[in-house]
Amino acid sequence: LESPAVFPGFHNRFIAFLEEAISAVLPPPYFTDIANRVVIAGGDEPRRREPDVGVFEPAGANGSHGPAGGGGVATAAGPMPVVVHVPADESTEWAIEVRTADDADRLVTAVELLSPTNKGAGRAEFRRKQRELADRRVNLVEIDLLRAGPHSTSVPPDAARRAAGAFHYHACVFRPDNPSDFEVYPVRLADPLPPFNLPLRFPTGDVAVPLQPVLDRCYDVGLYARRVRYDVPPDPPLTTEQQAWAAGVLRAKGLLPPPEGA
Fold this sequence. Notes:
It is a single chain. This protein has 6 helices and 9 strands. Helix 1 packs across helix 4 (212-221). It is 26% helix and 23% strand. The two termini are 28 Å apart. It is of the alpha+beta class and 262 residues long. The longest helix is centred in the first third of the chain and has 19 residues, at 7-25.
């Protein structure tokens, strides 16, 4: 599922099903929404497709667009530009927003499923967004189901591993009211995904949100058993112990043939 060819679609499907799971346990007046942003990663820094200044063409007398007088287009005098081509990698990032209806739809908690872009070309933009949410005193839940790429959730990686030990995936809950503490849910490859506590506003307590049923539903609805190549080594590779565990699981599900001589 972590393959670059598979994960983008899985990411969006997981977000949609996770929003349903959150909505099912939210008390009033809270509600969810799905936000999206287009990130164009090219050059050294990713760029959002959100213009600061818009240039609009006025409508002509007959309602069509174009110069009202029908005249020609004036060309500004000056040196010709040098065209520098930078290949752009455009991606749409989906995230879940938990808002409260009794305070002008205020954003209370953001829930992110990290993508390869968040851990790669768009990492600087993702880190900036983390700081923005903290400054706005918005709770942040980050779910990292990718073994590849640098650590990108809010919790410092060394501190997380000192407290939780080695892990392959994890969820991180950050509450700006208690900025020194990060709630980390460590997940090893063979572990089911744990539920996490979704923070809301005081005096409403947390609500528990399941993750493994969301993953199971994604896998079934997305027909990933037909798409994922289980007969080739994954990237990043597995250790020898992990390979033996994975082969046993896949054979039990009929996704790999029995070993020779069995």
